[in-house]
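Open question from group meeting: does this chain pack into something compact, or does most of it stay loose? Before anyone orders reagents, we agreed to write out a predicted structure and look at it together. Recording both the input and the output here so the notebook holds the full record.
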Amino acid sequence: MVGAGDVATRRIASLLDVDADVSVVAPDATDSVHEWAEAGRLRLSQRAFEDTDLNGPVLAFACTGDAQVNAMVAELGRSKGVLVQRADDAGASDFLVPAVVRRDALQIAISSDGQAPTLARILRSRLDAWLPRAYGDLARLAGDFRDQVKETLPRQHRARFWLRVLDGPIAEKVFTGRLAEARRDMKRALADDRPDVPVRGEVYLVGAGPGDPDLLTSRALRLMQRADVVLYDSLIPRAIVDLSNPQAERIHVGKRASRHTLPQDDINALMVRLAGEGKRVLRLKGGDPFVFGRGGEEIAQLAEAGVAFQVVPGITAASGCAAYAGIPLTHRDYAQSVTFVTGHLKQGELELPWPQLARTGQTVVFFMAVKSLSGICEALREHGLAENWPAALVIEGTTIRQQLLVGTLADLPARVARETIEGPALLIVGEVVRLNETLGWFRPNPDTSDSV
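Structure tokens returned:
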């Protein structure tokens, strides 16, 4: 390595990761290079480059800030049969260095053919952040059982077996850290594997978040892309549904206030039936499945039927919409607690603990509150909150169609009545609503946002 600046340091770090024998020649070096040298991980010569430095190496990297020195190293390398990579001129290099994402034995290399190395590094960083670390454990598990699979299964069955292992329940156990269970299931799968044995299905109960596709969790996206069937609610944006496996069957099951395409019991039965057919069923729900999403009821039915399932939490609408509206749910000066309640009417009535909700020093978030907005505001006033107590309705929060209507318990119902509201909406009540004036940062439709 000729040079020991920032570029050289990045190259050296990658080389040390694969236990390369590294010698560095440079008058000055970064702190990292000095630390590696002191630890005996490389040899450092703090001086100018000399011709004899290329006597022996297999590869050389010219990473100085001087183009003439880099060119001299490249020319000398060719005369001595040493392949040289120039950090400042990919076209004059004998080889290129890809950006690499490593998960133990699993490696992904990204190259721009020297045209855009910064872009390759950006993609490497994004893949590195997205690709679960457990893929290294999965690759190691496959390696540990590879010989046993060869000895146990006929060649024509191996591809099907590995597909079931690497993209099925065993892999999911690895991803969730249950390595001992995964190894046990591998042994059992090898002993029981037969073409006539049906594949066991499972259900993924996944929270899709409040609406912005960027707010999906990495696990949610991974499971969405491996599903065979997608059951989705009315409030799930098309942009999120479209991130699911394009080959998957998609079934709209409704679940919108007062308009249910399928009753809840039918949805539960449908999940059980599809999983019984060996399918991977994605139950995609808005927000978080366990926050007014009836997720508990659905997995109770699955558990009773003996169907394997996993639950992936999502960013609940309360936190997502509040954040995008610039309304902190808690604040040391205004709200020391937050309460989530449903504004959904039961037989035309709102059965809520109004004395507890109509207190100062807290934030109250009402889900599904548009139809009952007037009754909520009136009840809170009747139980002690002032008429000018702040309240806000966040409509289609976190999306480009977000609309924010801000007012008080006295005037907000009238403001909302003037609007045509089709999408999901969330009511936030509390002094923190006033902070939107200074903290509101996401205003995709400034002309439609009202202020206090």
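Observations to bring back to the group:
The chain has 17 helices and 16 strands.
The CA atoms of residues 133 and 450 lie 45 Å apart.
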